Amino acid sequence: MRDPETIEYGMGMSLREARTLLDCARRDVERGLSPSHAKMEKRTAAAEALTFGGWAESYFRHNYRHEMAEIASLTLSATR
What we know:
Blueprint: H1 15-30, H2 35-49, H3 52-79
């Protein structure tokens, strides 16, 4: 079973890139941060951003009031 605190970067990178990432991960650990948790949170945020539910929530949060006001004014002008 895999250790939950183990972080994997994959084989699609050069040794130099891997060493740079390792240095960054070590610095994070020294500061008390968990690189594996940060990577997992980043993946989760990206996955949630791509879901229809995430998109719909964002849409209604940003556009709903503006569009409802526009629809209301169009409805009022049509009834006059």
